[in-house]
Amino acid sequence: MVTMNPEQVAMHYIDEVYKNLEATHAHEPEFLQAVKEIIYSLAPVFAKRPEYMEASLLERIIEPERVVKFRVAWEDDNGKVQVNRGFRVQYSSAIGPYKGGLRFHPSVNESIIKFLGFEQIFKNSLTGQPIGGAKGGSDFDPKGKSDSEIMRFCQAFMTELHKYIGPHEDVPAGDIGVGAREIGFLFGQYNRIKASYLPGVITGKLPRFGGSLARKEATGYGTVYFVQEMLKEINATFENQTVVVSGSGNVSTYAIEKAQQLGALVVACSDSDGYIHDPSGIKLDTVKDIKEVRGGRIKEYIDAHPEATYVEGCENIWSIPCDIALPCATQNEIDADAAKTLIANGVKAVGEGANMPSTLEAIDLYFENNVLFAPAKAANAGGVAVSALEMAQNSMRMFWTFEEVDAKLHEIMRNIYKNSREAAKEFGHENNLLIGANIAGFLKVADAMIAQGVI
């Protein structure tokens, strides 16, 4: 009989758990990808703490506590009833009420919501705030819809969702397709149904009715703050670095803004139609006017700046040489080929502003080529961190200044970096922030689950 050492026992345990999950969830590739990336990095934890295996902790944490699916029927401007699907995955409440965004996009399905919710457990844990993991959304596409249609959809969506959320139970926020406009409609409908004013039920609200200053900027700023700490490993800063940022929503816009404030030359950004390349530096006021004021497409940038180039199709943005790449658009936007191109062009660091924007193959290539890598669950945790600060302000009936919130955000991102780095070192993977972030996020939730027992 062959005796396995603790590391082999741990890996065998993870293999068995993942094999069983794969057999039952083969139709959910995004979810499987997210689980695989996280659980295999936890092998050193299970080797050192076998009581986690004895408590079947992995089997318990990969299964959501609750999955809610519902029909959303709403009327378009022509009086025709349209039907979409709504989701809320309440993944883990071990360390606090469920917390996670709502995504409105045609690609939304149960696999994507579960991958986002699973990642949210560890991201929320890393912030140090008392919030559990959740995610939700719908396959509704706000693009091309009138304000009235979006309002009617949001009201129909909340009419169903309100049964499952509350300030002490589950606190949603925004995500792709859900900005301040949608949050306002959702919040208004919740209050009408409850006949109350309950600001703590949703975050991402406008500051004039209970929102937090710096929430819009938080994810983008936080990503840059995290990368700023990471760059210290090679005695570098953002000063005079060439940066490429994908996307042109809130995350991208404010990652560009903060990188530029720190002295970087940001030369490209994108939307789902294509990307712009401006070698002299992206003019952020123009991007904000197009996206935040007029709701236009990024190709309109060249109308104001004809010296820039617009390219149809957003996938080739990573062919632009850069020192720092900040993928801030969507999942799996950097595959192995894109990673190889970035590496060949001399990229020094990749900071993930979006959720899971790099494939597993791309991540392997970063490590093989000594590219500094800031994983999403750590680097883009700034948004949910400030959402938690918004919850705190709502609970205390207080309102902090932009500078106060930004300072708290900066400190939270420093701590996430520090804790991820220390966890990686403690468990034998020094300088691997992916493993470090996974472990640091997992330990807090695991210990809470053990302490609370099995129900």
TrEMBL record:
InterPro entries: Aminoacid_DH-like_N_sf, Glu/Leu/Phe/Val/Trp_DH, Glu/Leu/Phe/Val/Trp_DH_C, Glu/Leu/Phe/Val/Trp_DH_dimer, Glu_DH, Glu_Leu_Phe_Val_DH, NAD(P)-bd_dom_sf, NAD_bind_Glu_DH
Keyword Oxidoreductase: yes
Keywords from the UniProt entry: Oxidoreductase
An annotated Gene Ontology molecular function: glutamate dehydrogenase (NADP+) activity
Domain of life the protein comes from: Bacteria
Oxidoreductase listed as a keyword: yes
CDD domains in the cross-refs: NAD_bind_2_Glu_DH (cd05313)
Family: Belongs to the Glu/Leu/Phe/Val dehydrogenases family.
Protein name per the record: Glutamate dehydrogenase
Annotated source species: Kurthia gibsonii
Taxonomic lineage from the root: Bacteria, Bacillati, Bacillota, Bacilli, Bacillales
